[in-house]
Design goal:
By secondary structure, the protein is an all-alpha fold. The chain has a single domain, classed as Vanadium-containing Chloroperoxidase, domain 1. It has seven helices and no strands. The longest helix is centred in the N-terminal third of the chain and has 24 residues. The radius of gyration is 17 Å and the shape is globular. The termini are far apart. The relative contact order is 0.18.
Length: about 170
Amino acid sequence: MDDAFRALLDWLFALDTQTALFVSEIRTPLVTKLFTSVTGLGSATAALVFLGLFWTAGWRETTKTLMATVTRPFPPRPVCQTTGAAVASSFPSGHAAAATVFTVTAWRSESLPVAAVAPLALAVAVSRVYLGTHYLSDTVAGIAIGIGAVAVAGALLTRWEPPSSR
């Protein structure tokens, strides 16, 4: 591995560890209860959109490969455990990706309330770090994947033309 890339990864992992430990020290019962409630929004409503767009965009195999390649363990001292954590890896955050997909879809739509969805998506992303279920970089990568999934799916859908009826 290139020395500069290795140094970047070392810096990123150190930042992730420091962030996870700092957040675990400042947790309060009220904020933990709030984020425990909010974090579910990334796995229910938006997950269906996320999975559909990923399937449409052909990213399903890429995501599986990414998760299998990185196999990053979850942060220490989580408040709650993600379902399937025994077989999953921390990178990337699927909750953050799903919430981002929902937000970007709302932004591109005329009928979905982006002003209501965006703060909830941000809260989902922050909740993943706050609850100790993901590192900061896992969440940022999830957001990037969500944006990319919508961009690719949007490009594919605008190029697809339904067959004309005869």
